[in-house]
Amino acid sequence: MSVNLQRMKTTFERCSDVVILPWHYGPDYKYNAFSIYTDALIQKKEHNYFKDSLQDLVPHPIGPGTTVTPEDVILFFNNKGASDHSAILIDDFNDAVNRVLDGHIVIFIDHWNKALGYKAIGLETRQVTESTTEPVVQGPREGTVENLSKNLGMLRGRIKSPNLKIETIATGGETKTKVAYCYLEGKVNPEMLAEFQRRITRLKNEEVLETSYIEEIIEDSVYSPFPQYRYTERTDVAAASLLDGKIVVMVEGTGSVLICPGLLVELLQSSEDYYQRTVISSLIRIIRLFALMIAIALPSIYIAFSTYHPELIPTVLLLAIINSREGIPFPAVIEALIMEFFFELLREAGIRLPRPVGSAVSIVGALVIGEAAISAGIASPIMVIIVSLTGIASFAIPQYNFAIGLRILRFPLMIFAAFLGIFGIMIAFLLIWLHLANLRSLGQPYLNSIGPFIPRQLKDVFVRAPLGVLMRSPRNRHMRKTSK
């Protein structure tokens, strides 16, 4: 024990939060032991659990008037005896160190080449509340938190089936973050699961602090502006994805849940689509499609029409545009780039500022700068309207990471429109569609349901069929085996 004690002191030298507590037990307290734990991680009531109740852990009588001895303790735990707390036998020093850092109380007893570990983690975490990134008018309010065990428990509470498999891995480096991935056996595509497991093994030597680290490590195309995976903070969305044959990834210390794979049609869907009546949900999806086109193409269409194709604009509207642009020193493309840049700058500033002032600054700033730009003759009123409509349309996209991709594509589209007009926009869209047709997510075509075109799957793409029709369809409609 003295050797183990010295090694632990050396390993945790200058670690003030790690407590090493020597103690004694037995008749006349002649037997030695010591406990080691991370004070900030464990529950305070567990500190002296083993020390205070060591004799009670052995259920059989040792003899009248006698007390527990090291031999009794060793025999008891080697035989896997039951106690109030489940003990883990540790026979590797590095494993003992890792368990101390993972919220265990580790106990060393003299004359025994093993250690005992008790899970006693009691780290304070955020309480389960409604998701702030995916609010809904109707539906569950339960959102994930930073505690992995709580998140897995909420997911298991929604899918009460032994087919729900949860596998856990520990990442490498200094963080040794715990990562869990879940799938529903019988629903998930076996080839897709095997490919995911092959990619996830890369994490064993990587530092992982958040779910987005995993996304970039396992995605198919790192430089694509389109996200190949979805994020959620709602357990009902994660459960529905599992029923659809997806793989759900959770990371200790973050509330973001990664859904693999993420297809284009799913990035335009919201959980509330299934909590509203079919007519309302279908109408909202159609509105989102229009918002998608506005968010990506409205500024470039304005540039192309006003610069190269004014004959396509109705006469009254054309006269209004000419009148509003009178005295503007920049061509339409420079004007659009400047206004888009400052709009994106204001949006980013509103996110980074403290919450009480962030929204006020972003809204007031947009109004003030827009009005000042018009008064100074730097921007026309029509351009301010177009940039504002583009920003509003991007807010209507349910997935934030998908909306960011549209914001990026907006700028090259404006450049294409400035050089070639409507033909430039056509070329740009052709390149985008070629990229999307070639893009895959965990081996699945990114345009699944659209390309390859599968008519029977369209009942839950652009519109939502009644739930009775969807429930009679195969749940894993997007996960059918496809050729690579």
TrEMBL record:
Protein name (Swiss-Prot/TrEMBL): Spore germination protein
Keywords in alphabetical order: Membrane, Transmembrane, Transmembrane helix
Organism: Cohnella suwonensis
Coiled-coil region: none
Pfam families: GerA
Family, as annotated: Belongs to the GerABKA family.
Transmembrane segments: 286-308, 328-346, 358-376, 382-401, 413-436
Top-level lineage group: Bacteria
